[in-house]
Amino acid sequence: MTDKTTILFFDSGVGGFSVYREVLDLLPQHHYLYAFDNEIFPYSEKTEELVIQRTVSVCKKINETYPLDLIVIACNTASTVVLPALRKIFDIPIVGTVPAIKPAAQISQTKHIGLLATKGTVKRPYVDELIHQYASTCQVEKLGSTKLVEIAQDKIQGDSVDLIALCDELSKWKNIDHLDTVILGCTHFPLIKDEIQICLPQVKYFIDPGLAIAKRVAYLLENVKVRSKSETKNLIFCTKQFEIQNKFMQSLKNRWGFEKLIVLNLDE
């Protein structure tokens, strides 16, 4: 693959940047778009039907103007429900994000691991199946949190992290001494990994799927035919205007080279 492919990353918020940065590090030469559905952020406590409807609508809307070659659903909550619907609509590779349960079970020395995810993700039968398949020899703690998603969202938008609130959210795990491995089962959580580690000092390993997704994207691009070569600017899309747009965009332009923020109108 020598031509620039157009790759869309989609999340309800900015957590997908933790996946995007891994893909960008491995594949810096491609054309990148990022979309976040801030109008109904976060997805963690929304119905499956609404999550599917919103994800499909955003991806279809962007594809009308910017023909996509690959889509990364950089959101664990959405990935548990939207992939079949997207694959019916798009004849391009669709990459989902799932909790890294298998590598966590393999690396844990105490065989006592924690799945830190959204409230929606920890309830999905799919997650129970992954635990049964790959971590049946482990004791698995599950903790679903919307607060941590909001803390990570605020951090990347320039706010300081409230460590007291963060540690309070993780207090159930504070005294589990044998908990040596934690799966960061929401793409927002790698963005606050250092702060999470302060609250859980007994944990040796924090596992997220970012690098594995990057390798998967690289593999799939080997057989992708580029649909459009006309667009080269890296763009960000959201679904609602917000107060700190200019500050947010300046940060992302300096850090990752995004040049413009576009507000989508899904009703058009």
Describe the structure.
With 268 residues, the chain is an alpha/beta fold. The chain has two domains: 6-97 and 210-263, Rossmann fold (3-Layer(aba) Sandwich), CATH 3.40.50; 101-207, Rossmann fold, CATH 3.40.50.1860. The chain is 42% helix and 17% strand. It has helices at residues 17-26, 48-65, 76-89, 101-107, 119-123, 125-134, 147-156, 163-169, 193-199, 210-221, 245-256, and strands at 6-11, 31-36, 70-73, 94-95, 112-117, 139-144, 181-184, 205-207, 235-238, 260-263. The strands form two sheets. A six-stranded parallel beta sheet has the order 4-3-1-2-9-10, with helices on both faces. β7 (181-184), α9 and β8 form a beta-alpha-beta unit. α1 (17-26) packs across α10 and α2 (48-65) crosses α3. The longest helix has 18 residues, at 48-65. The protein is globular and about 55 Å long. The mean pLDDT is 92. Its EC number is 5.1.1.3. Provides the (R)-glutamate required for cell wall biosynthesis.
Q: Which short descriptors sum up this protein?
A:
268 residues; alpha/beta; Rossmann fold; six-stranded parallel β-sheet; four-stranded parallel β-sheet; 11 helices; 10 strands
Concise synopsis of the structure shown:
Belongs to the aspartate/glutamate racemases family. By secondary structure, this protein is α/β, with parallel strands linked by helices.
SSE order and pairing:
Blueprint (H helix, E strand, L loop, with lengths): L5 E6 L5 H10 L4 E6 L11 H18 L4 E4 L2 H14 L4 E2 L5 H7 L4 E6 L1 H5 L1 H10 L4 E6 L2 H10 L6 H7 L11 E4 L8 H7 L5 E3 L2 H12 L13 E4 L6 H12 L3 E4 L5
Helix pairs in contact: 1-10, 2-3
Family: Belongs to the aspartate/glutamate racemases family.
Catalytic activity: L-glutamate = D-glutamate
Protein name: Glutamate racemase
